[in-house]
Amino acid sequence: MERFIDNLPPMDLMRSEKMTFVQLIIPVECAHRAVSYLGELGLLQFRDLNADKSPFQRTFVNQVKRCAEMSRKLRFFKDQISKASLLSSVRPVMQQDIELEELEIQLVEHENELIEMNSNSEKLRQSYNELLEFKIVLQKAGSFLVSSGSHAVSERELEENIYSNDVYVETASLLEQELRPERSDQSGLRFISGIICKSKVLRFERMLFRATRGNMFFNQAPADEEIVDPISSETVEKTVFVVYFSGEQAKTKILKICEAFGANFYPVPEDITKQRQITREVSSRLAELEATLDAGIRHRNKALASISIHLAKWIGMVRREKAVYDTLNMLNFDVTKKCLVGEAWCPIIAKAQIQAALQRATFDSSSQVGIIFHAMDAVESPPTYFRTNKFTSAFQEIVDAYGVARYQEANPAIYTVITFPFLFAVMFGDWGHGICLLLGSLVLIARESKLGTQKLGSFMEMLYGGRYVLLLMSVFSIYCGLIYNEFFSVPYHIFGGSAYKCRDTTCSDAYTAGLVKYQDPYPFGVDPSWRGSRTELPFLNSLKMKMSILFGVTQMNLGIILSYFNARFFSSSLDIRYQFVPQMIFLNSLFGYLSLLIIIKWCTGSQADLYHIILLLLAIIAVPWMLFPKPFILKRLHTERFQGRTYGILGTSEMDLEVEPDSARQHHEDFNFSEVFVHQMIHSIEFVLGAVSNTASYLRLWALSLAHSELSTVFYEKVLLFAWGYDNIVIRFVGLAVFTFATAFILLMMESLSAFLHALRLHWVEFQNKFYYGDGYKFRPFSFAALTEDED
Hints:
Elements: H1 2-6, E1 19-27, H2 31-41, E2 45-46, H3 61-83, H4 100-146, H5 148-163, H6 174-179, H7 184-187, E3 189-197, H8 201-211, E4 217-222, E5 227-228, E6 235-236, E7 238-246, H9 248-260, E8 264-265, H10 272-328, E9 332-333, E10 339-347, H11 351-364, E11 372-376, H12 393-402, H13 413-428, H14 431-446, H15 448-451, H16 458-465, H17 467-484, E12 500-501, H18 510-513, E13 516-517, H19 536-569, H20 573-604, H21 613-627, H22 629-642, H23 673-697, H24 700-724, H25 729-767
Antiparallel strand pairs: 1-10, 1-11, 2-10, 3-7, 3-8, 4-7, 5-6, 9-10, 12-13
């Protein structure tokens, strides 16, 4: 048997790639090029040899700062292009490669040019806004001064506010004097006109009223034009105001309040002829400024367009350079300061590619000394690396979300590819709903080249990443739906006629009075005649409950078998004899025998004793078998090792405590028998109790399948058929809309998410806890392809 297993070909994804720990000694003159070539290759994970140093104490900190500054400039260009509503060029641009220093000079020039243009544009816009506000104030305030209707209102307001105050009794008829310009100097009636943000008008008026104790008249009118803020480039609604007052003290208060509220005030002459003359002058200057602003915007957009052509390439170049210097900062200088020394992990299969890249870097740098690349021994455990593709990566991510596999332990993802979508389909079995999921997954797969280059939202990104998971889930849902014979909860005679018929040819209540079998069973899946019969629920409950037990026991046995292959791979005979064997005996003596009885009853219809006394005794014996031998054997082996009796066989599987999953490498003084025994006792109790609870947990397959089926039936019979019973097109349309909404959002979205989470739990807890430790760490090589915007 062992020879047969050894002769089996290796299975992809079953074990992580074999890793080796290497040391690189790189001459300074070719270090940058070597690291760049390694980044393009993406197969080397560097160790940080300067972890005790802060980022500012590292060798290439100045180069990193330069790259960070260039990244800031590029982000500034990107923001400016976005504000100008210009699209970045996506077409390939033929441009010669430039050096980092030359790019840095270009970026400084472009930034200074843009800053100067923005500053000039802001000044021009500020001048334009002031003139535009002046023009609006002239128009509105002038209308206040010459409007007869406004005079009457003003007279009443002034009588209430000013004449009622004893201090101002002698200044009677202020409005009449204000209407006669030649007497305005004698009367002392004055006004201030200006403009303020519309959102501040009410507070502004209230503050003026309180400051002058009501001895003022406030008039306002909305500005007809919106003014653009030169800083934020947003349009602001403003309101023109005119404040009438008397006295120098009131003027000082009003001016301070205007300044506090950010109001701009402009002088408006009382003479209508002067107003018109000033308005004409302001309009001509506005036209000139508008033409200048348009020319400046065109020039600025032209400069931004020339930058946007190369922006993507520049961002990628700076990002790569920064990543290279960040990696160089993880290396150490040797004592001669002529070489950089680095340590890294790499897959053994990639050593030839890495050496070729290093040789190419030496040649391209014209270095007189080659790069030394050799393997070393490492104390720490290697990282875990699985070579995945776009199909298997999503399933590997499902497993890694629980925990990254320990180095070279059995990978559950290879079985999850099939078992995960299948268990989902057992709970979601309906070939109508499965077709809907299939269409959605095919759309994602057909557009994957387009979607892969776009920035998606969190939900769409999750769907896109799991498109192949969704594809398999939909295919298995169709398969299970055909077995359940459910199409939106409706059964169909797809594979021939039913095996049952009425008791006689005239019966009309066959679904309540019962059916009689008259031919061979329905060839595939559940007979459609069960739908609506008196025994539908008892039959389907029995079928799905027993099926759930069978699937659960099978998957748990698979997990225990994988623990055997783990123990065999790591040459741990203790785990085979004192974990695998008693676990298989315990589980199958109880639940394996139960599953066998289910199958026998399905095939023959006969019944047997639920439990056999021998199997019960074996299950009882298996518990101390798991608990006691292993801790005592580990204690004896540890004692013999340090007494010098077995120094000659330290490398054997029995003596290498490092490869024992339940015991890390221990020194003589660190070995604690009570701790090992308690750990083994916890592990044994957990398995015994888990064998019962995990088997019961698989009954969720039955529960969710039943719930999905009954919910589909309710929506079909109580919504769609109920609405179709009315001879009214509106009621039918409403019923169809409610049925479609319930199917799409409740059954296809909420139910699918529920089934997905339950299938996830069955894999993480019930299946993987039988063999999977998941305490490794992922292989994260230095790769330009893995760089994201966060690296900036």
